Amino acid sequence: MKHSFTKALVCSTLAGLLSCGLQAADFPEKNLQGAIMWGAGGATDNVARAVTPLVEPVLGEEIVLVNKSGGAGAISTNYVNSRPSDGYTLLYGAENPQLHKVLGLSKIDYADFYPVNILARGVVVIVANNDKPWTSMKDLVADAQANPGTVKMGSTGPGGLPFVVGAMLKTATDFDVRAVPFDGEGPGITALQGGHVDFMPAGLTAVREHIRAGRVKALAVLSDTPIPGLEEIPLITADIPEFKKFLPWGPFYGVFAKRDIPDDAKAKLTDAFQQAAATEQFGKFMQDFGAVVTNISGDEADAFLKHWQSVTTWSLEAVGETKVSPAEFGIAKP
Amino acid sequence: MADSMFGYFMMSWLDPSLLGLTALGTLAGIYVGAIPGLSVTMAVSILISFTFSWDVNNALALMVGVYIGGVYGGSRSAILLNIPGAPSAIATAFDGFPLAKQGLAGQAIGVTTVVSVIGGFIGILVLAIAAPLVSDVALMFAPRDYLLLALMGLLLVASLSGESMAKGIFCAAFGACIGMVGMDPMTAEGRFTFDTVMLLGGIPYVVAMIGFFGVSEALYQLHHIGLKPIKQDVSKIIPSWSVVLKYLPLSIRTSFIGVFIGALPGTGGDIASLMAYDHAKRSVKNPSKPFGEGAYEGLVAPESANNAAVGGAYIPMLTLGMPGDAVTAVIIGALYIHGLKPGPMMMIETPHLFWFTVGNLTLANIFLLIFGLTGIKIFAKMVELPKGLLLPLIIILSVVGAYAINNNIADIFWLLGFGVFGYFLKMAGFQVGPIILGVILGPLMDVSYRRAMISVGDSTLELMHELVTSPISLILSLVVIWLIVSQTALPRLIKARFSKGKTA
Question: Are A44 and A289 in contact (CB under 8 A)?
Fold first, then answer.
């Protein structure tokens, strides 16, 4: 009797220890939630929905995706930041929060988050309406300098990709264009084809098929080294060598969690997303999508984010497009 | 070529799994559409993850079904409960709900189903034969033209104001203010946000819609809580040929409005159905009942237009890879994920996709006719539920719907606030229709105007010049002017003068 009682006790203690151990190693033990900072059908949404089904089998739990768009991503960063630091709420975001501080939109940026994975980097191309006489960036810049404020650039509003590239071009060439903001890259490219704007810097994702079909012409790609598959598009540094200091630059898509989530959750998430981003399926999707898989996490990703923020905010500052100087937030000069 | 075209067209008809998925999608879509707050966009984005490992054709068949069913489903709750299940069903509630109050919900749903299918077919027909042409015209629409379209839509306030035009204008302006809350898309500056991040995302217009229509209606009905619910006549649900023929001309006219507005990348079924309603109100001289009191014409117009807008939305998507509305934007994402390259080359490199989609849309439309006309009796009987049961149900549905949009608890507070405010507005003789009109069209007008002004370097003269030199702008400007003038005494004066001249 006594013997069996001891045995039972030992067993239960062992079992308890075992389950405790399992529990600690067993993040996640319930469904996760993923907040996407842009609306359904946008680039960030597409990337999120492409990677998540590849992550779920590795994690062994589902990630329930919700679009929480608004405030150029500020709604989502604030939301995820207000959730418990348990690793169960993820943020699927693009580059935008890195500009929120200097544009006065939000006090939160990616410094408050742990970069689980910067999944991919977009390539930027400057495209022009076919009816324009320009054949190179030189022609465009010369035209914009000769007729200040009349060449129309498609934009997506302050903080958007065309806005930043426009600011960089302005610093490098001192040209003057009229930025017409649209609801996103897609509507901007539509307007470009209709001749309602003259040129537009845009992610390759949004324009590649239109370049291929010959509906718009590509003037330059924002890179100083040739990009596989885009060899026929001139590099921006060929016509504007001053642009080199901003490179490499482009939009990016990533997954983030709060900075102070438990270490085992960090490790589990990082591992799961790294495995997913390394799959052939995701690589193929990204290639079709017009982006380059980066698949970086942790410190390496943090360095990437810091560099991106420094280059971008200071070039906006240089042309007077910031509300608050990056210096106020301790963002180092590039 | 023609052979393979037909083969791709028939693909979903002959393959049992595609056939089944299209049917399932359509049926599910009707329910998704009928529940306010559950949108087709949301359903299709969830389907992307769900169908991740599927064959692309299967995934698309399911999505097409949900899309067709969902656009139609919005009319169900609009007619039965006065809560439009989707923004494109707002105009349906204006005359649909009065019909339900008269015990004619069954007939209303029957007519709605038939004209939805007619609208759907016209949309598909235009897609099949004129897609490249329509998308070229759609590209020519400049920001100033969207401004004119928004203006045209806002003139509807005259049709929706009820007794007092002043009250209608107040409501539309109030709606426009609600629509402005949040980050200004042109300057990234917060408007009416009181420096809070919560308001930076704005107020979803579906929340305003459910609040002003659903919750306020439920509160209003508390006055009649003791009244016995109206007995619904469900004997003759399927409309006779003569009825269909009677409304066919209007249905065809408004379908063409729907296809074109749907094909424009900046506007969708919601604006199409409102403009179609306005067209019906202006062009039909002797409606079956006065508009707003249960005119079948008021159902025919918006329901033809919003289903025709589906075919329209596919036009820029399939020819250019540009979404015609929010749902096609999500479907484009799905195509990427399944390894296709949506864009202008898609028609050339994967031509089968075009005819497969056209065939699939046609099939879904046939299923819509079947599912739409069965089960109406049960739906119609829902209105016969005792008020004590029905009203709490409406409130719960509204709250769930409002929360589902962004999973944001603040939206529920907006919903209840709008509901209570809408109730007092109704008591004071205000109409809630113009508020929603303002919420939808106000922001479109705001950004289009500013975009147009920026495009011409803030020169009003230049804008005026473009309004008369561009053919599209000129036509739209003339329509706007005619819409305004036709509401004044001027045409009657001219007529009187002419007839006097003749007799003299």
Answer: no
